[in-house]
Amino acid sequence: MKIKVQDLIIFGLIRLATYFVVFIIAYILLDIIVNGIGAINWEFLTTFPRKGGSEGGIFPAIVGTLYLVLLTIAIALPLGMASAIYLNEYAKQTRFTHIVRLAIITLAGVPSIVFGLFGLGIFVIFLKFGTSILSGSLTLACMILPTIIVSSEEALKSVPMQFREASYALGATKWQTIRKNVLPYAIPGMLTGSILGIGRAAGETAPILFTAAAFFFPRLPGSVFDQVMALPYHLYVLATQHPGMDEVRPIQYGTALVLISLVLGINIIAIFLRSYFIRKYKW
Amino acid sequence: MSSDTLNNEPAIKTHINSDAGCGQDNTTNNTKISVRDLNFFYGTRQVLFDISLNIYDKKVTAFIGPSGCGKSTFLRTLNRMNDIIEGTRHNGEILIDSKDIYGEKVNLVQLRKKVGMVFQRSNPFPKSIFENVAYGPRIHGIKNKGELENIVEKSLKNAGLWAEVKDRLTSNALALSGGQQQRLCIARALAIDPEILLMDEPASALDPKSTTRVEDLISELKENYTIVIVTHSMQQAARVSDYTAFFYEGDLVEFDVTKKIFTMPAKKQTEDYITGRFG
Ligand SMILES: Nc1ncnc2c1ncn2[C@@H]1O[C@H](COP(=O)(O)OP(=O)(O)OP(=O)(O)O)[C@@H](O)[C@H]1O
Ligand SMILES: [Mg+2]
Questions:
Q1: Sign of dihedral through CA atoms A89, A92, A98, A103?
Q2: Domain for residue B160, yes or no?
């Protein structure tokens, strides 16, 4: 009897915790949607801001964020996947790989502002890339590399050892085995994990604060050495630095809604990919 | 001991079976694999002790013994599959066609092409039936579609699977039954045209009917291949093999013609094991 009551209480608490989380997420989403939807229209999405962001649209910020995300993917994905392949398939378990793994885990816990300052020091100043898409993407890539490496390694680990063995036993070399009999099964998992990291890159402000972002840039960036506007930074400035903070509330909400849709969209792609491939590769 | 001296003495040198094969069958026995004083270690743990035996060309040799006695480990030294496990080492010699397979100039790809392997748990790739069988030939550089199709058909026929799958070569191999999967793995191993076929408990996960099929298959295949099979079934060893090696805790206790092992084993341990008194 007593045990049953205990059970009920604990179960109730756990349930409450879950509801609480869902409630908060729902509240934030609803708040943004309700307040932001009014600001969204064709002009908002396709024109440049005017009068210091008090009027006009957020077109260059959308484009800027897309550029940053794309270049970040181009840098971080191959690097992260290659590292994961090396760590999981080639490297022996030595003190060195142990330290590398430790470093990766530590890196995953470093606050994003630290990455921002690191990027400023290394890419902007030392390598003289300036405040640019390149510097920003490199910084973002550093930030999401741990996520990509860890999830890619998980994906590689989940490919049964037997596939590798069978392949070796047929006379395949290590690279042939990896290319034909490990990667095809692991890449979906590698991608889905990585996309979640990329979603995070799209939404972060701190890493691009000193490395890439401009509050206003009169044209679309022409090369990777140009500064860009970006959604999270635009939102940050409108919400904290703008002289008419309260008047531009609708624009803030609209920007937040676009940003959230973008990140959610990226995550939803990941979820669909995952369930698609889980159905396709069963073993 | 240089390999040259060994080449000149094909007769078995172990104390256990110096008269093995005599009088049992009249065909001459050519040594295909010759193992000399093999010791094998996982890290610091030794699991094989001074193994010496000969495996004869176009014969079926069965390895029996209680679980954990080192049968699989020994089998896997024959195509160097243990190489992929970290921290393993060995000493002693393994000669295939008089060549030391652990020698410096040995090409692993060529070795494994010559020594095919079928695993205990059938492990088809999650690809189509065709791609499973074509995997090996492709790796060894065959690109021509017609040639691949021929190899696939021939291998599946040899493995006794062709009739069942010829209409669905493009469907996923994982949709096959357990017995079919195991025969597919045999076909996959045959597709690279090996000379030796190592089989680690190929029928352990199969129902009696599929087991019979695989056993029949082994009897057919020995016309063209040298076969080594690990099995826990005394009946199976007695049915399919010409020679039987009994292992116990990393030692080769007895190696002889199968008939002799099962009718008058020389060692008490062997007798106890095959009569089911332990193991
Ligand atoms: N990868 C490994 N690392 C360390 N020890 C191992 C490894 N594989 C096998 N062993 C050990 O080596 C010994 C021999 O194992 P092996 O698999 O060769 O036995 P087996 O005769 O094939 O047994 P079974 O009939 O159960 O398959 C066992 O004691 C086992 O624990
Ligand atoms: Mg075994």
A1: negative
A2: yes
Q: Which helix (H) or strand (E) holds A279?
A: helix A249-280
> Domain holding B70: CATH number?
3.40.50.300
Tell me which residue range forms the domain holding B232: 2-274
B155 pLDDT above the threshold of 80:
yes
Contacts of B113 in chain A (CB under 8 A): 170-171
Q: What is the ipTM of this complex?
A: 0.84
DSSP, residue by residue, A118-130: HHIIIIIIIS---
Tell if the CB–CB gap between B125 and A169 is shorter than 8 Å.
no
Question: Ligand 1 within 6 A of B44 CB?
Answer: no
Q: pLDDT tens across B73-83, in order?
A: 999 999 999 99
Cβ distance of B112 and A185 shorter than 8 Å: no
Q: Quick check: CB of B47 below 6 Å from ligand 1?
A: yes
User: Nearest Cβ partner of B79 from A92, A169, A282?
Assistant: A169
* Cα–ligand 1 centroid distance for B68 (angstroms): 5
Q: Looking at ligand 1, which atom is closest to the CA of residue B43?
A: 4
The predicted model scores a pTM of 0.80
| CA-based nearest residue in chain A for residue B121 | A162
Q: Where is A63: in which H helix or E strand?
A: helix A59-85
Domain for residue B63, yes or no?
yes
Region B94-110: mean pLDDT is 91
Residue A277, pLDDT above cutoff 60: yes
Helices (H), B23-124: 71-77, 108-114
- Tell me if B72 CB under 6 Å of ligand 1: yes
B279 belongs to a structural domain: no
For residue B23, the model assigns a pLDDT of: 40
Q: What's residue A219's pLDDT?
A: 84
CA distance B230 to B250: 14
Contacts of B263 (CB under 8 A, 6+ apart): none
pLDDT of res. A49: 87
Q: Is A170's CB within 8 Å of B84's CB?
A: no
Neighbours of ion ligand 2 (CB under 5 A): B 72
Q: Given 3-state DSSP classes, what are the helix, strand and coil percentages for chain A, each rounded to the nearest 5?
A: 75, 0, 25
The residues, ordered by sequence, that sit 6+ positions from B211 with a Cβ below 8 Å of its Cβ are B203, B236
Q: pLDDT confidence of A260, banded at 50, 70, 90? A: very high
B134 domain-assigned: yes
Distance (Å, whole) CA A147 – CA A105: 9
* pLDDT per position as a tens digit, B35-44: 999 999 999 9
Do residues B159 and B210 make contact, with C-beta atoms less than 8 angstroms apart?
Answer: no
**3-state secondary structure at position B242:** coil
Nearest by CB to residue A170, choosing from B84, B124, B136, is B136
Is the Cα torsion angle A28, A31, A37, A38 positive or negative in sign? negative
- C-alpha A234/C-alpha A209 separation (Å) is 10
Q: Do A165 and B110 touch (CB under 8 A)?
A: no
The rounded distance, in Å, linking the Cα atoms of A205 and A208 is: 6
| Average pLDDT for chain A | 89
The count of domains in chain B is: 1
What span, in angstroms and rounded, lies between the C-alpha atoms of B20 and B29?
11
